[in-house]
From TrEMBL, chain A:
Belongs to the GMC oxidoreductase family. Residues 446-566 form the Glucose-methanol-choline oxidoreductase C-terminal domain. Keywords: FAD, Flavoprotein, Oxidoreductase. Residues 233-343 form the Glucose-methanol-choline oxidoreductase N-terminal domain. It comes from Pseudohoeflea coraliihabitans. Pfam families: GMC_oxred_C (PF05199), GMC_oxred_N (PF00732). The lineage of its organism: Bacteria, Pseudomonadati, Pseudomonadota, Alphaproteobacteria, Hyphomicrobiales. This is GMC family oxidoreductase.
Automatic annotation (TrEMBL), chain B:
PANTHER family: ALCOHOL DEHYDROGENASE CYTOCHROME C SUBUNIT, BLL4482 PROTEIN-RELATED. The keyword Signal applies. It is found in: Cell membrane. PROSITE patterns: CYTC. Residues 1-39 form the signal peptide. InterPro entries: Cyt_c-like_dom, Cytochrome_c-type_DH, Membr-bd_ADH_cyt_c. This is Cytochrome c. Keywords: Cell membrane, Heme, Iron, Membrane, Metal-binding, Repeat, Signal. The keyword Heme applies. Residues 46-149, 191-301, 318-408 form the Cytochrome c domain. It comes from Pseudohoeflea coraliihabitans. It comes from the Bacteria.
């Protein structure tokens, strides 16, 4: 029997980026908020102190900040005709645990999606005609214009360093000319560029493109955000993505929100609370709370008026499935919506090698330090005759020169031994990587459901991921890679290696932690799990934040939009939901 | 488990993390209404608020709230050179607190250091300062304390050796060190200065930490006053220029007010015992009281003794060279290559009086142990300096301490590895 605790007004499950945003917004409204986080508390300054944070083995290879798979994981297969096997080691994506979630060890590239991304189906159909039958992309039910103020809020919270390309419809020199109109310039100027992004930008400009600085959550100068929390200038230490910043130079929930939120009387955080399921009312028309387990193994029932799931997409979808909330998607019958439209991102890279006199100094780096072009993202270019839709950005980020992870050597180098060592010595500090980062559309055959065989330590069936890259994505990625090769050629190196992305998709090498879909948002309960306010269609006191809401995955890093959607949802809760609690904010 | 203080909430072992402020006044009033021994004025809202305010000016909670769940219930172990004293329970509990005390009893304790039963209080309780305060202020504090929820908590006698364990001996101590004073404003001085004097010398008891003490543990006055002292093993810096260091000679009133209000200013951040003083006391001061306090402190006379002359150590000195290397690799990310820091976030070392103080204990302890700044309304981020004791050996700590004391235009005596070893030992 679970021990039942007193009811709370709001229970937030998962305390990463979106959990903290929702908690901040709803406590500001005066609500009594309890956040439940499976991980532990960490002190930014001391736990991630600059004296000990630069430990590549501990963080990158022993996964100190990432979720642990010993008690809970998922199974994976490429297609429905295969048998899925448990993922026993993280690889392709690296979600976090502990207070702050993945936001603690993210890079901080903070985009807005293109206005046309939010109407991907209607826009592409209108321009290019009918889409392939098994491509299940949808419009989002929310527009760029509706999200614009919330993008701004997040950028100001984080102190994003960048250069606007479109201010209220007027194009700006030096920014992204393709972005949707923004109401404000970025709160901080771009970061200082080092040689590698400069070489990239020069070559790209020479080809007629318009390179601009990555919008970055690494601080280009000291900054105090609207909550009054201060961030320090980035020191370009090169231990950023996959690492935490003890210098308060990278925006994360702990560095931008928690100093203020933790002081609020109406907020409480319970750590080491692993939520196992969401509890439904007998009539199935609302949720009544959640059930969690403590490290001692005690099961606690936490009743709530309102539940917000902010556990990252994989866990949000899993929680819905094991709680029996909504019908699980079945690709054969096309019935069910939970787990539908799982998508990912497709990446490739080119490395340019220079001679010894070109010093790249790769150890001067930051998660989002670099230059990028957006000519080939979304529908910024004419896709007629190309055989695919979607796109991605091509950019050069100088993130690190870490001794284990970041040792680029030219093609044909032996994999170990004296030959490898020699090549490593000669090339360390003399190579520049260019990356492409592409969209993945959603398809009938890419989805999440429950595994029939494997269970986690709590006895719940594991979630099963069925995913592969399809023709559209591989063609698109090849097209982006060809453009990257052209830029690389113009960069004047000695030689280059090209790493194209080929199918089938593998969960072993790291690609991105940009998983999307599974509890998608939309305009109608017939084809989505939540409305545009992230409110569950059938259980209006349940909200789901995170990239699980994306109907498909555009060609950008997701968190700017993930956060904007959370602020958009919180604003609607504050404005209208609280007037009529338990009622849907959009009529079906 | 619920945690009520920020410090505790930030420990990794805590799971239920909630931060509450001081006991809500409404709760106090409820307690007041149900308590039988109501003295006059004790259910007057504004009198209670005044009492709460004055108790903050006096930083009573620093010593009398050992456990945030038991406000003012005492039993905080106060280490003195003579032994440990446990602080009194100030809640109106009849058996173990001040439940039986009258306003007169309380006034006698504040003014003369004498307990209700006639015994002498040990001067760790700053009656030597509180003697200055007015009867009206004493009564307001009394009224506030009587309105608290009574908490039963027995407090032990100090573990002092003979003859100090005999409170009668304090007669002798008082004869040498105590003068029953009352406050008479100095008509030559501004109203602000006079108010500042009343706060600093009375309830604020600033010199308890910021002045050196004589062999009997009493605060030295005259030329020695405010020339720096020790608090819990930290150097409480000199507040006036002289032998103890440059003091606050180049601080503006805004600097000092920002420091006392927000725990930080463009030069530095409070840490250690002063962080607690700011959190529990000075940040609550009214604007005019804060202004008065700063006026008085910045007007302290220069001490007769000139600052010990110290030429900056040459950059070729081997310690300076090692120190520069340690600084570049370990310190410069936050404090900046030129020791400028980041205003409001990371302390400036260039020109810092603390860095250059004649006694290097604090600089060395900062490097060894690290410190946490106090989060306040204006600066909610709990910036902290990490500990380096596990990473740097005595010679390296000495070198980097010597370096920061003599780089960026600073000058102060070198720090030896032996001195570091001693401080490390004492931790
Ligand atoms: C290495 C890396 C680099 C990245 N770089 C970028 C980038 O440059 N730009 C970008 O836009 N995005 C980036 N991301 C993605 C970004 O981190 C995520 O989009 C963002 O953190 C998602 O926020 P969230 O609130 O949905 O989830 P999270 O921030 O991951 O928070 C989820 C929280 O829920 C908790 N939780 C999960 N299950 C349970 C449960 N059952 N009970 C209780 N708690 C639970 C987790 O422990 C975690 O704390 C990166 C991610 C990684 C890993």
């Amino acid at each position: 029997m679970a021990r039942k605790l007193p009811k709370r007004e709001v229970v937030i499950v998962g305390f990463g980026w979106t959990g903290a945003i929702m908690a901040e917004q709803l406590t500001a409204e005066g609500l009594d908020v309890l956040a439940l986080e499976r991980g532990v508390w960490r002190n930014t300054s001391t736990d991630y102190a600059v004296t000990n944070a630069q430990d590549e083995v501990r963080y990158r290879f022993r996964h100190d900040l990432f979720e642990q798979l010993s008690r809970e994981t998922m199974t994976f297969r490429n297609s429905s005709d295969q048998t899925a096997l448990p993922m026993r080691m993280l690889g392709s994506f690296l979600p976090g645990t502990n207070v702050g979630g993945s936001g603690v060890h993210w890079n901080g590239i903070t985009w807005r999606f293109l206005p046309s991304d939010f109407v991907a189906r209607s826009h592409n159909e209108e321009r290019y005609g009918p889409l392939p039958e098994d491509m299940t992309i949808q419009d989002w039910g929310v527009s760029y214009e509706e999200l614009e103020p919330h993008y701004t809020t997040f950028e100001e919270l984080c102190g994003i360093s960048g250069k606007a390309g479109n201010l209220n419809g007027r194009l700006q020199q030096g920014g992204n000319p393709f972005e949707g109109p923004r109401s404000k310039e970025y709160p901080n100027p771009p970061m200082d560029m080092v040689l590698a992004p400069k070489l990239f930008a020069e070559a790209a400009s020479g080809l007629g493109y318009k390179p601009f600085p990555f919008p970055s959550a690494n601080m280009s100068r000291a900054y105090t955000n609207p909550l009054g929390v201060s961030l320090a200038p980035c020191t370009y230490c090169g231990f950023c993505e996959k690492f935490a910043c003890g210098n308060y130079s990278k925006a994360s929930a702990p560095t931008t929100i928690l100093p203020v939120l933790m002081r609020r009387q109406n907020f409480e955080l319970q750590t080491q609370a692993m939520v196992l399921r969401v509890l439904k009312a007998a009539d199935g028309k609302s949720v009544t709370g959640v059930e969690y387990i403590t490290p001692e193994g005690e099961i606690i029932e936490q009743p709530a008026d309102m539940v917000i799931l902010s556990t990252y997409i994989n866990h949000n979808v899993h929680l819905l499935m094991v709680s029996g909330i909504g019908q699980i998607y079945d690709p054969r019958s096309q019935q069910g919506l939970v787990g539908k439209n799982y998508a990912y991102q497709i990446t490739s890279g080119v490395t340019v090698f220079y001679d010894e006199e070109t010093h790249i100094n790769p150890f001067i780096g930051a998660g989002a330090l670099g230059m990028v072009i957006d000519e080939f993202n979304g529908d910024n270019f004419d896709h007629s005759g190309l055989g695919f839709i979607g796109g991605g950005f091509i950019g050069q980020t100088q993130t690190n020169g870490r001794p284990v992870e970041s040792l680029a050597v030219p093609d044909g180098t032996p994999k170990f031994g004296a030959g490898w060592k020699k090549a490593m010595r000669e090339n360390y500090g003399h190579s520049v990587g260019i990356g492409t980062h592409g969209a993945v559309m959603s398809y009938r055959g890419n989805y999440l459901d429950l595994d029939p065989t494997y269970k986690d330590a709590y006895g719940r069936p594991l979630m099963r991921m069925t995913f592969d890259f399809t023709e559209n994505e591989l063609r698109m990625s090849d097209y982006l890679t060809d453009r990257a090769v052209e830029i690389a050629e113009a960069m004047g190196g000695r030689e280059m290696t090209v790493s194209r992305r080929k199918g089938p998709y593998s969960i072993v090498p790291y690609q991105t932690t940009h998983n999307t879909g599974g509890h998608i948002m939309g305009a109608s309960p017939a084809d989505s799990v939540t409305n545009k306010y992230l409110q569950h269609w059938q259980m209006p006191n349940l909200f789901l934040t995170g990239a699980g809401a994306f109907p498909q995955n555009p060609g950008y890093n997701p968190t700017g939009t993930v956060a904007a959607l959370a602020y958009h949802s919180a604003a609607a809760i504050r404005r209208s939901y609280l007037r009529a609690p338990g009622q849907p904010m959009v009529q079906a | 488990m619920r945690y009520l203080s920020l410090a505790q909430s930030l420990t990794r072992s805590s799971r239920r993390i909630r931060i509450a402020g001081l006991v809500a006044l409404s709760a106090c009033l409820f307690a007041a209404a149900t308590h039988p021994a109501l003295a006059q004025g004790t259910n007057d809202w504004s009198e209670l608020q005044r009492g709460l305010y004055l108790s903050r000016v006096g930083d009573c909670a620093a010593c009398h709230t050992a456990d945030p769940e038991k406000p003012m219930a005492g039993k905080y172990a106060l280490d003195t050179p003579f032994g440990t004293i446990w602080t009194a329970n100030l809640t109106p509990d009849e058996e173990t607190g001040l439940g039986e005390w009258s306003a007169d009893d309380f006034w006698r304790a504040m003014n003369e250091g004498i307990r209700r039963d006639g015994a002498h209080l040990y001067p760790a309780f700053p009656y030597t300062h509180f003697t200055l305060i007015s009867r009206a202020d004493s009564d307001a504090i009394y009224a506030y304390l009587q309105s608290l929820e009574p908490i039963s908590q027995d407090v032990m006698e100090p573990d002092f050796p003979f003859p100090l364990n005999i409170r009668f001996v304090l007669n002798g101590w008082n004869l040498i060190n105590f003068e029953d004073r009352s406050f008479t404003p100095d008509p030559e001085r501004s109203a602000a200065w006079n108010r500042g004097y009343y706060i600093a010398e009375g309830l604020g008891h600033c010199s308890m930490c910021h002045s050196p003490k004589n062999f009997t543990g009493a605060v030295k006055d005259g030329d020695a006053a405010y020339s720096g002292g020790m608090a819990e093993g930290w150097l409480a810096p000199a507040l006036r220029p002289g032998s103890g260091g440059p003091g606050l000679s180049d601080w503006s009133k805004d600097d000092l007010m920002a420091f006392l209000r927000h725990g930080r200013n463009s030069r530095t951040a409070a840490f250690g015992p002063m962080a607690e003083v700011i959190d529990k006391s000075t940040r609550h001061l009214t604007d005019s009281d804060l202004d008065a306090l700063a006026t008085y402190i910045l007007d302290l006379p220069e001490s007769g003794e000139a600052p010990a002359d110290s030429e900056a150590i040459d950059t070729d000195d081997p310690a300076m060279q090692t120190g520069a290397l340690v600084y570049a690799t370990q310190c410069s990310a936050c404090h900046g290559p030129d020791g400028e820091g980041i205003p409001g976030q990371f302390a400036r070392l260039k020109g810092s009086s603390l860095t250059q103080s004649s006694d290097p204990t604090t600089v060395v302890r900062l490097v060894l142990e690290g410190v946490r700044s106090v989060p306040t309304e204006k600066y909610p981020t709990p910036h902290a300096m990490p500990a380096f004791d596990w990473k740097l050996n005595d010679a390296e700590v000495a070198a980097v301490a010597t370096y920061v004391r003599n780089a960026f235009g600073n000058s102060a005596p070198a720090v030896t590895a032996d001195a570091v070893a001693e401080i490390r030992e004492a931790q």
